[in-house]
Design goal:
Blueprint: E1 2-3, H1 11-19, E2 22-23, E3 42-43, E4 46-47, E5 51-58, E6 67-73
Length: 80
């Protein structure tokens, strides 16, 4: 997860998805600039088999980006 500085539909991101088990987010949240977010260039990517919900942007101290937060649903089998 992090400050990719890249929209999710860019070729660089598509290459990442094609070469790994990471999945694109179900929806994107604008995070930049923090004072008037218009661009979704920060992402939390999850692997297949995991689900997430409640993705939202929130203030991050001293940053020009908003932080991303989500609820991650981890299967019971992964916790053993």
């Amino acid at each position: 997860m992090g400050d990719f500085n890249c929209a999710i539909d860019r070729p660089e991101m598509q290459s990442l998805f094609n070469r790994t088990r990471l999945q694109p987010p179900s929806h994107v949240v604008p995070t930049f600039p923090s004072w008037r977010p218009q661009r979704a260039i920060d992402h939390i990517l999850i692997g297949d088999g995991l689900r997430c919900s409640e993705m939202k942007a929130m203030p991050a101290a001293l940053s020009d980006h908003l932080a991303l937060s989500l609820q991650l649903d981890v299967p019971d089998a992964a916790l053993q």
